[in-house]
Amino acid sequence: GAGVSQSPSNKVTEKGKDVELRCDPISGHTALYWYRQSLGQGLEFLIYFQGNSAPDKSGLPSDRFSAERTGGSVSTLTIQRTQQEDSAVYLCASRQGGTAFFGQGTRLTVV
Amino acid sequence: TQLLEQSPQFLSIQEGENLTVYCNSSSVFSSLQWYRQEPGEGPVLLVTVVTGGEVKKLKRLTFQFGDARKDSSLHITAAQPGDTGLYLCAGAGTYKYIFGTGTRLKVLA
Questions:
Q1: Pairing assessment for the beta strands B10-14 and B103-108 based on DSSP bridges
Q2: Which residues 40-79 of B are in CB contact (within 8 Å) with A?
């Protein structure tokens, strides 16, 4: 596609439910990142995928968070048993060479 | 842990004024990028600087990378309301981008 696409754009969920966030990177980009941005704040690194290498999961805040990338393309970030502190904008970016391109993000609200 | 501190955190100025935003770290980065983010959107890349001491200009925006590649600045000349947004610096490590704390700029007409 022309850019990084994320879905849904907004998600409201009840505390304790599981959610899945999707990222479609730019075609051909081998690197994919997930970041979390709390209201008005900078970006917090969550996870990084590069080709077929094992992902860097060092930024995932707890074992309730997981992510996968199928076929080196689409990625899904899953949050299990959501908590109110999980409320944030989740941003995905893909990179080829030196520039990372971001999607518009998924705004997650846990009520 | 690599950290990037930005200052100021918030800045509200009148149209036509000049401003400088700083991005500082104790770590060396292979390159540094500046992004601008508007509400409801993802960050959009403005510039990448890779060489210590490098200066890049993008219309009214001037970006400088410190000689030691640990810090950077963004200078805006004659700010306009369209410059309003969240400015983020990001340092590139081995492969991971470390983002700064952000500077929220508001330019009043």
A1: parallel
A2: 40-45, 48, 50
Whether pLDDT at B66 is above 60: yes
Query: Is the per-residue pLDDT at B69 higher than 60?
Result: yes
Residues A43, B44: C-beta atoms closer than 8 Å: no
Query: How near does any CA of chain B get to the CA of A79, in Å?
Result: 21
Q: Fill in the DSSP letter of residue A25.
A: P
Q: Give the pLDDT confidence of A14-63 residue by residue, as tens digits.
A: 999 999 999 999 998 989 999 999 876 778 889 999 988 899 999 999 99
DSSP SS3 for A65: strand
Reference A32, options A50, A7, A8; nearest CA is A50
B92 touches chain A (CB under 8 A): yes
Instruction: Residue window 57-86, chain A: list those with CB within 8 Å of chain B.
Output: none
